[in-house]
Amino acid sequence: MGCGASTPTKVSVAPGEDGNKASQLLKQLTTKGKSDAYYEASNGGEPIGVGSTAVVIIGVCIKAHRPPDSDERKGRVNSGVAKGDQVALKMIDRSKDIFSLERMYAEFSNNLRCCGHPHVVDAFELFESPTQFVIVAELVNGGDLITMLMEHFEQHDEFLSEEGVSALFKQMASAVAHVHSVGVIHRDIKPDNFMASRKRGRMRASSADFGSTHSIKLCDFGFAARYDPAGTEEAPKDLCGSLEYVSPEVLEPKLRMQKYSGGYNTEVDVWSLGIVLHVLLGGFCPFGADEEDETFEEQMRSVVDAHAETARRGLDLPDEQFGRRSGAVLSLLRSILKVDPTQRPSAKDLLAHPWLQGIEAMPKTQRSAFTARRGSIVERMTDFQDTTAKGRLKKAMKTVRAVTRMSLMLKNGGEVRTAESAWN
Description:
This protein has 2 domains: about 20-140, Phosphorylase Kinase, domain 1 (2-Layer Sandwich); about 145-410, Transferase(Phosphotransferase) domain 1 (Transferase(Phosphotransferase), domain 1), CATH 1.10.510. Helices cover about 35% and strands about 10% of the residues. The protein has helices at about 20-30, 100-115, 145-155, 160-180, 210-215, 250, 265-280, 295-315, 320, 325-335, 345-350, 365-370, 375-410, and strands spanning about 40, 45-50, 55-60, 85-95, 125-130, 130-140, 185, 195-200, 215-220, 225. It has 13 helices and 10 strands. By secondary structure, it is an alpha+beta fold. The termini are far apart. The strands form 3 sheets. Strands 1, 2, 3, 4, 5 and 6 form a 6-stranded antiparallel beta sheet that branches. It has a two-stranded antiparallel ribbon with strand order 7-10. A two-stranded antiparallel ribbon has the order 8-9.
C-alpha cells in the first residue's frame, strides 16, 4: 500500500472557490460505490478520534480493489488496499462542514500529494454519499504525540532527554520538509497531528533511543493548501489553524512578505514546528491565550499581543524550564520562533542543524545537557495533556466558526485588534 510523490500540478481549490469545480475534481478521486461494500468497522466501531465534523474509527478491508485512476495519482505507486488490511476510516458529516466540497478536495488531494514518506500518513481513497465523506487512510494506532510521551513516562518514570526529543523532532522536520517539497503547506502543525507508533521488535525504549524506536507520522490535511515554489501564483491569505500554534503573519497581515503579495508561505509551518519543540522541552505553549479570555476574538488578541511583545524583546525562555538545556537547542528555538518570517530557517534547513545530528555533532561542553534525563517537566506536561484533552473537543467545535470569523474580519477590512494595532 502507499503512494509516492509527483511533481506539483497547478490545480487548486480553496475554501470559498467554485463548488462546481470542486465537485468535478472530487469525482476524479472518488471510489465508486459505498464504503461499506469494501470496509467494515473493527473494534465495535469505537472511535479513536472525534472532532466537530468527523469521527475516526478502525476499519478492515473486506474486498480487495484499486482506487480510480486520476490526474492526482499519475506517477504514484498505489496498489490499493488488500483484503484484511486495517485502515483508519475518517467519516465526515457533510451537514456540519460549511466548506464541504472545497475542503474535502483540498484535504484528500493534498494528503495524496504528500504520500510515500515514512513520516506522513498515507491516504488511500475517498468515498462520497449524500450524508458523509469517508477518507480511507493508513492506520497509526499509537495515539498522538503527547499521549505517547506520557505513556513512556509511566513505563520508565522519566521524561525524554534532549537526545530523545531531538530524534523525534528530526522526524517531524523531515515530514514537513517533504510536504513543502511537493508544493503543500500543512497549516495545522501541532502535537495532535503527529501520530506515533512503536517500531516492530522494539517493545521498550530508554529516554535516549526513544526516537529511534518510535515512528512519528504527520496527519490531518484538513487545512492544507497548495503553494507555488516559483512564486508565480497567489499565496494563501486565509486565517486558519490552531491558535496557540499559528504563526504571527497568519494573524497579522502587516508581517507578510511582499514577494507573496499579501499572502504567506511555508514559513508558517516552521513556526508551528518551533512551538511543538517548545512544548516538548518546556511543557507549555509560549503563546497561549489568557485564561480570562472568554471569546475567541479576545483569545486571538492575546496571542497577537504576545507575538508583538516577542518581536520587541525577543523570545523568553524561562530559566525554570530551559536553564539547564543545551545552548544548541536554545539557539535553534530562537531561530525558529522569529516573528519576522524572513529570518526563519526552512524545514529543510532544520534537518542540517547540529542539534539534530546526534551526540557526536554536539560540542563536548553541551553533551551532558543533551543526554540528561529529566523528570521535572512531567508535572507540566501532564497539566498540558489534561488541558489539551479537555479543550480539544471544545476547540474543535469552534474551529469552523472561528475560521469563518477570522476570514470575514480580513475580507471586510477589519483588524485583529479593535483598538490601535499592537504592531504600530
